[in-house]
Amino acid sequence: MSEKNREGKRTARERLHQERQAHDARERRRRALIVAATAVGVLGLAGAVGLLAANMGKHKSEAAGPVSAPSGVSGKDDLAIPVGATDAPSTLTVWEDFRCPACAQFENAFRPVIHELEKAGALKAEYHLATIIDGNMGGTGSLRAANAAACAQDVGRFAPYHDLLYQNQPAETDDAFAKNSRLLELAGKVDGLAAAPGFRACVEGGAHDKWVEKSAEAFRTGGFSGTPTVLLNGEVVFPKKGDEDITPDNLKKWVAEANKGKKAGTETPSAPGSAPASDTGSGPESGAPSEPAGTTPAGTPAV
Model's pTM, two decimal places? Predict the structure, then answer.
């Protein structure tokens, strides 16, 4: 065999080897994306925007005045809105943005199990509000919705209103939550919220805007990669905890493991006018979550 032929065969083998390596790399990326999507339902390209780096755009409001925190907040600098028994043995910390599609996917998929664990006294949730989409996409819907949710906290209706906002989240490019009229319209679907003394004035006057901005700044400087950021007892669990993907069943298992030998919580938040965290109305129109069939988030692709 001539030297020319040997060189040609060697080149062909090297080229085939490179093509196989490239194919294997593409397959690894494809499988990783499928696993990530399966964990919380189909996030899609729109949802992925919510996972952009937190510092990619910073919304600046012209709101002035002192910081006015909602009633009953807790945590460092009073930035957490608690839901569930205050003495529950486990804590789920959630950083999210009402305009974030990935946050809506998380909330709509995991809401039933989170409320189940709250009702049982096994878990309390602490919600921290961010405005990352206002910064990335423009607009003020993240800020306006967060202020309205804080106003709902003042009258003890944060949980059902929070849920309803995610159930009625507009398209990411539609800044519908920037309109207080839309936020008040949705409040009318939560029992007792729209007519609660001071709620409308709180929403329209932006009473908690500065508090929301303080929370958003804590998110931007907290080293978080994007929304949603979800931690169980301080450990990141979204999109996975260690080597395990987050699923409703796994979340229940992780909480049970963390709570082994501990008493369930019984103390409810003492915010003025507060209702039990598990009281979310009687149906979707009142802000109550609808139970999915089984434990697999709707829209999960088959693999």
Answer: 0.73
